Amino acid sequence: MFILLALLLVGAAIGSLVAAPFIKLFGDSGMDAATLISYPIMFIPPMIYASVKSRNNSFSYQGLALDSAHVAPLGWLVCCALAILVTLAGNLASEPLTNMLPPMPEWLEETLGSLTGGNFWLNLLCVSIMAPFFEEWLCRGMILRGLLGRKVKPVWAIVISAIFFAVIHMNPWQAIVAFILGVLFGYVYYRTGSLKLTMLMHFTNNTFALVIGHIDSLSDYETWQDMLGNMFWIYFAISILILGLAWLAFRKIPLQRSYGNCDVVEPLIGKE
Which of 13, 22, 111, 221 could be joined to 226 by an S-S link, Cβ 3.0–4.6 Å? Predict the structure, then answer.
């Protein structure tokens, strides 16, 4: 886990070096292209490391599948609908905690604003497609699955992977929301084994922020409370209710093993 984090930082440094010429040549207009190039580069070192380790381990050790599909008795349609609702509810329910933080620095606010308020299609590719794919692969597919495979108690595995998810955002304003959503994503992965579902949840969260940032009448709102006004606490209570009902619903999916519903992959040596 720490090696993956270190390699992610190495990848971020390499991505910044590759992107620097675009910013130098084109200034602010080159930021979108720089982000589009540097973001996937950041994940190349940990992906190479994970691929080599996985290939080596696959010959001798029992493992867990990266993506499984245990959705019965709910079914895919219900699971997808619940995943979307849980994500939006978790985002809203986290706001009282983020409101306790001091105001976000202006430079960080501008940086995050560029990810949701710049060129829509480039941002959609980075924020809604690449981020869910790469970050879910790392935080749920590698970290959480690895911890569950080592028989770490599921609650701790989910919490540790959520902390990792929060840390890679590298600022407390995003980290609080990332931790709460990371717990929700982790629980869904633990109950279903489906990385596709957690990618859908991640896609929902990021795309919602992106769309809001491109609606002129809503783009000036910085928080849910600004948007909802006096109705915020009613929606907060509804969000908590949704989270509770979704937890009960996903509990109906029977666990194949005590460490979750990721399918077991047998070692290659010994197979006929």
Answer: 221
Count of beta carbons in the 10 Å neighbourhood of residue 265: 15
Q: CA-to-CA distance for 87 and 235, rounded, in angstroms?
A: 14
Output the six-digit token pair for 5: 């984090």
- What is the per-residue pLDDT for 29? 59
Higher pLDDT: 74 or 105? It is 74
Q: Where are the domains of the chain?
A: 1-57, 68-263
pLDDT reading at 272 higher than 60: no
pLDDT digits (tens, 9 = 90+) for 123-135: 889 889 999 999 9
Cis-peptide into 132, omega within 30 deg? no
C-alpha distance from residue 255 to each of 97, 114, 134, 154, 187 (Å): 32, 42, 26, 12, 12
Residue listed under structure tokens 């990371």: 182
Q: Decide if pLDDT at 271 tops 60.
A: no
Each residue of 23-60: pLDDT tens digit?
Answer: 677 666 566 677 788 889 999 999 999 988 888 877 77
